[in-house]
Each structure stands twice: as structure tokens, then as C-alpha cells.
Design a protein that fits this description.
single chain, 158 residues, alpha+beta, 4 helices, 7 strands, binds acetyl coenzyme *A
Length: 158
């Protein structure tokens, strides 16, 4: 029943401050003005999650290309502590999965997660993400500094 109260909305100049406040509370890393400038141009790749008309979560992604790969990179995906385990994270991941499915031209979805973030790792594994690499000293200002790369392969690499 709770799921019907969750809505995803566009990020606009009118609500970008809410996104900034949310990210400051949810993530140990702070994001610069360029991050938010790009988010405003991201269209469906950035969404705010509302629960009963309050902003409680957000997802921000960008397209990453390298050599002959085209991937979707989840930069941030999180929700406020008191609103966790209500399906808000699921709604945001499902949005991302629908996006790549419609596009049909992505090789994978990936993200970095702190190695001690067991809850997030379990969460992403539910959606078919796997740890494919661990990067030492990935984070500069937080402990632990190491990050796992979580990836969901959408088409096998040739
Ligand atoms: N421990 C174990 N399993 C979990 C946890 C947890 N802490 N959180 C979610 N899950 C699993 C469960 O199987 C859960 O289903 P259940 O509640 O029926 O058992 C399922 O994932 C779906 O959970 P949701 O309610 O949809 O997820 P939620 O809204 O709580 O969001 C999230 C999960 C995003 C990881 C949240 O805990 C959060 O915002 N954490 C802080 C920010 C963060 O760590 N973000 C992710 C890493 S950074 C990045 O994504 C780039």
C-alpha cells in the first residue's frame, strides 16, 4: 500500500535546492556546482522522489562512454533515513532500469559504493548488480576510502 504514495518528479530550478539539501544529508561526499548544473540538464536521468508530497529521495545519473562502451553511471541514489525500507529506493532503481530498457543501447549500469555500505550492496544485488572491482583510495575525504564498483551487465561485451 505504501508504494502508491511514492512519486518521481523532474529536477527543476525551483526544486534543485531541495536536491542539494537531500544529498548533503544522505551522502558523506559533497557535490559541486557543476554537478547540479549538469543535473538540471539531465532530463529523465535525474529525479526527486516524493513521499506524501515531501521530497525524501533522489537519483542522479549520467551517461558514460569509453572506447566502444556506453554505460549508465548512477552518481547518487538515496533517500532520507526515516523513509528507508518503504520501497523508495526500489522505485528509483526501477526508473533507471526502465530508462535503459527503453533506450536499448546501454552495455551496463554501474556505480561506486563505499566498501562498508552493506545495506546498499544488498539493495543493489537484489536488482542484479554484482561487485566487479574494488578500487583502493577511491574516496579522498571519507573513511573507508575504498569503493566497490557495482555493475549490472545489460549486454555481454564482445
Ligand atoms: N540492509 C539490507 N537490505 C536492504 C537494505 C539494508 N539496509 N536496504 C534495502 N535493502 C534491500 C531489502 O531487500 C529491501 O526489501 P525489504 O525492505 O522488503 O527487505 C530492498 O532492498 C528494497 O529496499 P527499498 O525500501 O526499496 O530501499 P530504500 O528506499 O531503503 O533505499 C538505499 C535503499 C538507497 C540503499 C538507502 O538505504 C539509502 O538511501 N542509503 C543511503 C545512501 C546510499 O547508501 N546510497 C547507495 C549508495 S551510493 C550510490 O548509489 C551511487
Amino acid at each position: 500500500m505504501t508504494r502508491s504514495k511514492i512519486e518521481l518528479c523532474d529536477v527543476t530550478p525551483n526544486n534543485i535546492k531541495q536536491l542539494k539539501c537531500l544529498n548533503q544529508v544522505v551522502f558523506p561526499v559533497s557535490y559541486n556546482d557543476k554537478f547540479y548544473k549538469d543535473v538540471l540538464e539531465a532530463g529523465e536521468l535525474a529525479k526527486l522522489a516524493y513521499y506524501n508530497d515531501s521530497v525524501v529521495g533522489a537519483v542522479c545519473c549520467r551517461i558514460y562512454t569509453s572506447e566502444n562502451l556506453r554505460c549508465l553511471y548512477i552518481m547518487t541514489l538515496g533517500c532520507l533515513y526515516h523513509y528507508r525500507r518503504l520501497g523508495i529506493g526500489t522505485k528509483m532503481v526501477e526508473h533507471v532500469l526502465n530508462y535503459v530498457e527503453k533506450d536499448r543501447n546501454f552495455d551496463s549500469i554501474f556505480l561506486h559504493v563505499q566498501v562498508n555500505n552493506e545495506g546498499a550492496i544488498k539493495f543493489y544485488k537484489k536488482f542484479g548488480f554484482e561487485i566487479v572491482e574494488t578500487k583502493e583510495w577511491y574516496y579522498k575525504r571519507i573513511e573507508p576510502a575504498d569503493a566497490h564498483v557495482l555493475q549490472k551487465t545489460l549486454r555481454p561485451q564482445s
